[in-house]
C-alpha cells in the first residue's frame, strides 16, 4: 500500500524538521514540557495520527534538543507519512547524538529501500545485534536489496536466512513470493504460499499473495475468491482491494469495480492505483471529464512524491507513466518509463507502453527496438505483435506487418485493436475489400473506439460512401455522447461531406463541454473560414493564443488564414513560428514551403523543403513537396530523382504509386509516370485512381485512343466515379471535339456542382471562344456558393472581355477579405491601367512589395513603367521577370516592346519569336504580332 495521506504537507514538514535539527543547540527549553510533548506524540503515533505526532515531537525537540527518543520517533512518524528526506534527516540526527544503529536499523532499512538505495542499505544496515522481528525485517530487506542489485542467488539465501530466523513469521514471504513470481518460478511461489497458509491462515497478506499468484496464472475466479477472503479478514487491505477492483475492470464488471473504488476513495483517498482504475472505468463509460480528472489526480499524487522513492517503486513508475500517457503528456510519461526500464529492464508492460508512445510519435525505429525484447521473451504476446506490426506498418513494410498483425488477431481472439491494425496493413497492400471487412469487424467489436471509427470513416469517404461515413460517425456519438473525440470526428465528417453549418454546430457542442478541447476549436476555425466567417475565426485563434502562446497548431491556422486573406508576409511569419515550435512535425514546415512558393520565393522554398526533407526522409508527402520545390527552383533533374526515391519507398502501395505518377507527369516525365502506373496496377488491377492516371498519361502523350481504353477501364472499376464525365470531356477536347467536351463538362457541373466543376466548364467555354457563357457559368457558381477562387476567375474572364470596371469590382471584392494578396493587387493594377486610373502604379508597387520575386508582379510594374515612359527602368524589371519565367509569352512580349523602344531590335525579334512560337493565345498576342511585323519591315 502507498501510505500518502499527507503528501501535500511533505515540503512544509520536511523543511521544518531540517530547520529544527539545524537550530537545536541554540534552544534552551523545559525538559518536563519536552517529556509531555513526547508522550502526547507517542500516543498520537500509536493511534495512527502521524501528522499530529510530528507536531508534538517537534515541540518536544524545541524544549529538549537532545531527546534521543523524540528524534527516533520523529523519524518513524515521518517515514509513515512518506516524508522521506525529513525522515532521513531525523534518523541521521539521532545517530549523531548517539543513538545505537541497532535501535533504528529496521526503519532505516525501510527508508533506504523506499529511496531505492539498495547498495547503501547493504553497506550501512547490518543485521548484527538485532533480534526478533527487527532481525527478520532487516534480513528480508537486505535480501530484497540483493535482488535489486541483480544477485538472485544472494537474495534467495537472504530470504532463507530470514525464514530460518523465525519460521513462524510471515514477513519474509511477503517479499519472497513476488521475487519468485517475477523470476518466473511460479511453482516455487506456490510452495511458499502453501507454507504461508499453514503458518498464517488468518493473515490478510497470506490470502492476498495467494490471489496474486492465481491472478498471474490467469485463474481469475480463484483469484477473486482469495481477494474476497483477504478483505473479509481486513477490509482496509488496500493492495487486495485495488487488485480485486483491477480484476473487475479487466472482466468489464465495472459496477462491482466501482464498489471497491468508492471504498478506496473514502478510506485510501491518496491511493494512485485506485484513481487510475477510476479513470479507466470513467473512460469506458464515455465520461471523458471524469477520466481526465482521475488521471490528473494520479499524476499529481505520483509527481508529488520524492523522486528517489518513486524511482525505486516499479508500480509507482508505471502509474506515473500511464497517467501522463492518458493526459497526453508524452515526455513526462517517457521520463517515468525510461527510469523504470533502467531499474527494472524485465518489465514487459513498460516496454509495450513505451513502444506505443513511440508509435504515437511516428518513431517506428525506437518502437521496434523497444518492443523486440518482449517478442523474444514472449513470441505470442498479442500486444507486442500488435505494436511491432504497427511499427512495420509505419515503415510501409506491409508483408511483415500483416504477419505480425495476423498473429495478434489470433491471440487477441479477434480483438478490435488487432483487427484494426490488420485492416490498415491490408489497405496498404491494396486489399481494400478485406481491409474494410476487418475494419468493420473491429468497429462492431468496439463501437465506441474513435480511432477505429476514424479509419473506417476515412475509407468510406475515400470511396465516396458519404452516407455510410455519416451514419457511423453519428453512431459513435450516440454510443458515447460525451466523448469529445467522437464529437470532433462527427463534425469533421460533416465538414468533409459539404455540411459546414452542421459541422460548426457539432464543434461548438464539443467546446461547450470543454472550451480547452483544441481539436474541436481548430476544426471550428477551419469551418468558419469556409463559411466566410474569417474575422470570427481569427479572433477565436487570437484569444486561444493569449492562453496558449506556444500552441504551434494555432500558429499554423493563423498562418493559413493570413495567407487566405492575402497577407503573405504575415502568413509566412506565422508558419515559420509553427515549424520552429514543432520541428518533428512535417505539416507546418510543408505549409511554409508552399507559402514561400506562392510568394514567388523559390530559393527560400527549396531551402525550407530540404530541411524538412532531411528530417522526414521516408515521408512521401514531405518528399513530394521537396520534389516540387526542386521543380519550382528550376532543377527538374533533382525533382525526378526525388520522385524516384519516393517510388522505391512506396513499394507496391497503389495509392502512393499513383500520387507519385502524377508528380512525375506534372514534371514532364511520362515514362516514369508509366512505371508508377504499372506498379500500382500490379498491386491492384481494379484500382480506379490508377486507370485515371493512365488516361492522363495517354493524353499527355497525345494518344487519344489509349486514353479512351483507359477510360473504359475506369468506368468498369468505378462506374459511379464522379470524374468520369470530366475525363470524357477532356478526351473530347484532345480529339478536337469541342461541342462534345462542352456537353460532358456541363453534365459534370449539373451532376456535381462545385467550384472545380464550374472552373472546368468555364475554361472549356473560354477555350471555345464563348466568353459570355464562361462568365455566366462563374456567376451561377458565385450565386450558388461564392468563394474567392470563383471571384478571381470571374475577374479574369471579365478582363478578357475588356469589362474593366466589372473586373475591377470583382478584384476589389476579393481585396476586402484579402487586402494584402499580391496576385489580386497585381491583376487590379492591370485593370486600373486599362481604366486610366492614376492609382495603378501605386497598386502595382504594393503588390511588388508583398511579392518581390513574383515574375508576374515584376512584369506588371515593368509594363506600367514602360507605358509611363521610363524605358530604362522598365527594361531592367522586364529582363528580371523574363529570367524568372521564360515560359510566359506575355512577359516576353512586354520585354520585346521595351527592347524595341530602346533600339535593341534583334533582341526584341528573338523575344517575339519565342512568345509567338507555339501559337498560344495570351493577353497582348495581337499587339505582339503587330510589333513583329513592324520590326521585320
UniProtKB/TrEMBL annotation:
Q: Which UniProt keywords apply?
A: Repeat, Signal, TPR repeat
State the superkingdom: Bacteria
Q: Does the keyword Cell membrane apply?
A: no
Residue ranges of the TPR repeats are 204-237, 416-449, 484-517, 788-821
Q: Which PROSITE patterns match?
A: TPR
Record InterPro entries:
CellSynth/LPSAsmb/PSIAsmb, PEP-CTERM_TPR_PrsT, TPR-like_helical_dom_sf, TPR_rpt
According to the record, the signal peptide region is 1-28
* Name this protein carries in UniProt: PEP-CTERM system TPR-repeat protein PrsT
Amino acid at each position: 500500500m502507498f501510505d500518502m495521506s499527507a503528501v501535500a504537507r511533505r515540503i512544509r514538514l520536511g523543511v521544518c524538521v531540517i530547520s529544527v535539527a539545524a537550530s537545536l543547540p541554540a534552544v534552551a527549553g523545559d525538559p518536563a514540557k519536552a517529556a509531555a510533548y513526547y508522550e502526547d506524540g507517542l500516543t498520537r503515533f500509536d493511534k495512527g495520527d502521524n501528522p499530529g505526532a510530528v507536531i508534538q515531537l517537534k515541540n518536544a525537540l524545541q524544549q529538549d534538543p537532545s531527546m534521543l527518543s523524540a528524534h527516533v520517533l520523529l523519524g518513524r512518524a515521518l517515514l509513515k507519512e512518506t516524508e522521506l528526506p525529513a525522515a532521513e534527516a531525523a534518523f541521521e540526527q539521532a545517530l549523531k547524538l548517539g543513538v545505537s544503529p541497532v535501535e533504528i536499523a529496521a526503519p532505516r532499512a525501510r527508508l533506504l529501500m523506499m529511496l531505492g538505495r539498495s547498495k547503501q542499505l547493504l553497506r550501512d544496515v547490518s543485521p548484527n545485534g538485532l533480534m526478533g522481528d527487527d532481525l527478520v525485517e532487516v534480513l528480508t530487506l537486505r535480501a530484497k536489496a540483493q535482488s535489486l542489485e541483480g544477485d538472485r542467488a544472494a537474495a534467495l539465501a537472504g530470504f532463507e536466512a530470514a525464514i530460518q530466523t523465525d519460521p513462524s513469521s510471515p514477513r519474509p514471504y511477503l517479499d519472497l513470493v513476488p521475487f519468485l513470481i517475477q523470476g518466473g518460478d511460479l511453482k516455487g511461489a506456490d510452495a511458499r504460499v502453501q507454507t504461508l497458509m499453514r503458518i498464517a491462515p488468518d493473515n490478510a497478506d497470506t490470502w492476498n499473495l495467494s490471489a496474486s499468484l492465481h491472478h498471474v496464472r490467469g485463474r481469475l475466479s480463484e483469484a477473486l475468491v482469495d481477494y474476497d477472503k483477504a478483505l473479509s479478514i481486513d477490509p482496509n487491505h488496500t493492495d487486495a482491494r485495488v487488485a480485486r477492483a483491477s480484476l473487475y475492470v479487466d472482466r468489464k464488471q465495472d459496477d462491482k469495480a466501482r464498489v471497491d473504488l468508492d471504498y478506496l476513495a473514502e478510506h485510501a483517498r491518496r491511493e494512485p492505483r485506485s484513481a487510475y482504475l477510476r479513470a479507466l472505468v470513467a473512460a469506458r463509460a464515455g465520461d471523458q471529464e471524469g477520466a481526465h480528472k482521475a488521471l490528473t489526480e494520479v499524476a499529481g499524487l505520483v509527481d508529488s512524491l520524492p523522486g528517489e522513492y518513486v524511482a525505486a517503486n516499479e508500480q509507482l513508475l508505471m502509474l506515473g507513466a500511464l497517467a501522463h500517457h492518458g493526459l497526453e503528456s508524452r515526455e513526462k510519461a517517457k521520463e517515468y518509463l525510461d527510469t523504470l526500464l533502467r531499474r527494472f529492464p524485465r518489465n514487459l508492460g513498460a516496454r509495450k507502453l513505451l513502444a506505443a508512445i513511440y508509435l504515437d510519435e511516428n518513431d517506428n525505429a525506437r518502437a521496434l527496438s523497444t518492443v523486440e525484447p518482449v517478442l523474444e521473451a514472449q513470441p505470442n504476446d498479442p500486444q507486442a505483435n500488435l505494436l511491432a506490426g504497427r511499427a512495420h506498418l509505419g515503415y510501409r513494410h506491409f508483408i511483415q506487418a500483416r504477419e505480425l498483425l495476423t498473429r495478434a488477431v489470433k491471440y487477441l481472439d479477434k480483438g478490435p485493436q488487432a483487427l484494426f491494425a490488420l485492416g490498415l496493413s491490408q489497405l496498404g497492400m491494396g486489399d481494400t475489400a478485406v481491409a474494410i471487412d476487418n475494419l468493420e469487424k473491429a468497429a462492431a467489436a468496439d463501437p465506441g473506439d474513435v480511432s477505429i471509427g476514424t479509419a473506417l470513416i476515412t475509407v468510406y469517404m475515400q470511396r465516396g460512401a458519404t452516407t455510410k461515413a455519416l451514419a457511423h460517425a453519428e453512431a459513435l456519438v450516440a454510443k458515447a455522447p460525451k466523448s469529445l473525440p467522437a464529437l470532433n470526428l462527427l463534425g469533421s465528417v460533416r465538414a468533409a461531406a459539404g455540411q459546414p453549418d452542421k459541422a460548426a454546430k457539432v464543434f461548438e457542442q464539443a467546446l461547450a463541454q470543454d472550451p480547452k478541447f483544441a481539436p474541436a476549436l481548430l476544426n471550428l476555425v477551419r469551418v468558419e473560414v469556409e463559411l466566410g466567417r474569417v474575422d470570427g475565426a481569427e479572433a477565436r485563434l487570437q484569444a486561444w493564443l493569449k492562453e496558449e502562446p506556444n500552441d504551434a497548431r494555432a500558429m499554423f491556422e493563423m498562418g493559413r488564414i493570413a495567407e487566405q486573406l492575402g497577407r503573405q508576409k504575415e502568413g509566412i511569419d506565422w508558419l515559420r513560428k509553427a515549424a520552429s515550435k514543432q520541428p518533428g512535425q512535417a505539416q507546418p514546415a510543408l505549409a511554409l514551403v508552399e507559402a514561400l512558393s506562392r510568394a514567388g520565393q523559390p530559393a527560400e522554398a527549396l531551402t525550407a523543403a530540404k530541411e524538412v526533407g532531411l528530417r522526414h526522409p521516408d515521408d512521401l508527402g514531405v518528399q513530394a513537396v521537396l520534389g516540387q520545390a526542386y521543380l519550382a527552383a528550376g532543377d527538374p533533374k533533382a525533382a525526378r530523382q526525388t520522385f524516384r526515391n519516393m517510388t522505391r519507398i512506396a513499394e507496391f502501395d497503389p495509392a502512393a504509386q499513383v500520387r507519385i505518377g502524377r508528380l512525375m507527369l506534372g514534371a514532364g516525365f511520362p515514362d516514369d509516370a508509366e512505371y508508377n502506373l504499372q506498379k500500382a496496377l500490379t498491386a491492384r488491377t481494379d484500382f480506379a485512381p490508377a486507370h485515371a492516371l493512365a488516361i492522363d498519361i495517354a493524353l499527355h502523350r497525345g494518344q487519344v485512343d489509349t486514353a479512351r481504353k483507359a477510360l473504359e477501364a475506369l468506368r468498369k472499376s468505378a462506374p459511379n466515379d464522379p470524374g468520369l464525365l470530366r475525363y470524357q470531356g477532356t478526351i473530347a477536347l484532345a480529339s478536337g471535339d469541342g461541342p462534345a467536351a462542352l456537353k460532358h463538362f456541363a453534365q459534370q457541373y449539373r451532376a456535381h456542382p462545385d467550384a472545380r466543376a464550374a472552373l472546368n466548364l468555364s475554361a472549356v467555354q473560354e477555350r471555345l471562344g464563348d466568353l459570355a457563357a464562361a462568365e455566366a457559368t462563374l456567376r451561377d457558381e458565385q450565386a450558388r456558393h461564392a468563394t474567392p477562387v470563383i471571384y478571381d476567375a470571374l475577374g479574369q474572364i471579365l478582363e478578357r472581355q475588356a469589362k474593366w470596371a466589372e473586373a475591377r469590382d470583382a478584384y476589389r471584392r476579393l481585396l476586402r477579405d484579402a487586402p494584402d494578396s499580391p496576385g489580386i493587387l497585381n491583376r487590379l493594377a492591370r485593370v486600373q491601367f486599362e481604366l486610366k486610373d492614376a492609382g495603378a502604379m501605386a497598386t502595382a508597387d504594393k503588390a511588388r512589395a508583398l511579392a518581390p520575386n513574383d515574375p508576374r508582379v515584376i512584369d506588371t510594374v515593368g509594363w506600367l513603367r514602360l507605358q509611363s515612359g521610363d524605358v530604362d527602368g522598365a527594361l531592367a524589371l522586364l529582363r528580371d521577370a523574363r529570367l524568372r519565367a521564360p515560359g510566359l509569352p506575355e512577359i516576353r512580349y512586354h520585354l520585346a516592346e521595351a527592347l524595341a523602344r530602346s533600339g535593341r531590335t534583334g533582341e526584341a525579334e528573338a523575344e517575339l519569336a519565342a512568345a509567338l512560337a507555339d501559337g498560344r493565345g495570351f493577353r497582348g498576342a495581337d499587339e505582339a504580332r503587330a510589333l513583329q511585323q513592324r520590326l521585320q519591315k
